[in-house]
């Protein structure tokens, strides 16, 4: 009986971690996409700082749940935004689109479905 209770507790912890991970990823994707849209509509230091704040707030937790390679690409592109903002608007918009593309990849890969469970 103790083994069944231990297994049930362990299963509950795993399910809770999966649900919280999906909620975190969804919230990150929504917040970052909104910040990028604001940034594309008109660059200001405050908007860029907001994007960095969002990234720094979610970064640690995302590395637990998401492929590191994709997150490293996003981190690199966020750092490039400040460089391209002053140099070339076309490159700036391209980097914004690359970040949004990577975010969509994360959202699609981490979305819960019956197929992904098996």
Q: How many strand units?
A: 0
Uncertain runs with pLDDT below 50, 5 residues or more? none
Can you tell me the number of structural domains?
1
Helical fraction equals over 70%
Derived from helix and strand composition plus strand pairing, the structural class reads: mainly alpha
Give the overall silhouette. elongated
Mean pLDDT: 86
Strand composition percent: under 5%
Order of helices and strands: HHHHH
Number of helices: 5
Name the descriptors.
118 residues, mainly alpha, 5 helices, 0% strand, elongated
Topology:
Blueprint: H1 2-41, H2 45-65, H3 68-87, H4 89-110, H5 114-117
Helix pairs in contact: 1-2, 1-4, 2-3, 3-4
Describe the model.
The protein has 118 residues and is mainly alpha-helical. The protein has one domain. 91% of the residues lie in helices and 0% in strands. It contains five helices and no strands. Helix 1 packs antiparallel against helix 4 and helix 3 packs antiparallel against helix 4. The longest helix has 40 residues. The two termini are 28 Å apart. The mean pLDDT is 86.
